[in-house]
Specification:
Distance between the termini: 105 Å
Number of strands: 0
Shape: flat
Structural class: mainly alpha
Helix content: over 70%
Order of helices and strands: HHHHHHHH
Length: 184
Amino acid sequence: MSVLLLALAVVLFPGPTKAAARVRPRATRQPEPKARPPDPFAAAATWDLLAAALRAGLPVAGAVRAVLPGVPPGPAERLREVVDLLALGADPVRAWAGALAHPETAPLARAARRTARSGAALAGAASDLAAEARARVSDQAEARAQRASVLVAGPLALCFLPAFLCLGVVPVVLGIVAGVGDDW
C-alpha cells in the first residue's frame, strides 16, 4: 500500500524541475510580422517632400538630407553620397553623377544637374517627378484591375456558356429539326 501511495505522490507532485516548469509562464511564440510590401506612393511622397523643402528655402544638400529617412536603402546610399559631396562644396554636376547610376534616383539627378547649369528651380522638377510617380502607380493599378476583370470573365463564361447552349440554342435547333422533319 505504501508503494502505491509513493507512486501516486510522484505522479501528482513531481520533482522541482517539473514544478518550476508549471509555475513559470510558457513562452508563447509570437508570430513573425509579415513583411509589408513597399508603399507604391513612397517615391511620390519623397519627391513632394523634397519640393516642399526646396520651396521653403533649404539648400539642396539640406533638403535632400531631410528626405533621406523616407528613401529606400539603395537610393538612399546614392543620395547620401550626393549630400556629402554637396556639403563639401563639390560641383553639383560632379556631385549628382553617382546618383545617375541608380534607376530610382537617375531622374532627380538629371533634373538636379540640369537646374544647376541653368539656374532653374529644382523644386519644380521634384514636383514633376512626384506627379510622374503617382501616374505610374495609377497606370499599374489600372492594368492590374483590367487583368483581373479578364481573369474573372473566363470562369463566368465557362459557367454560363453551357447553360446558354442547353437552355437557349439546343431547344431552338431541336424545334427547327422537328419542323423540318415534319415537312419531309
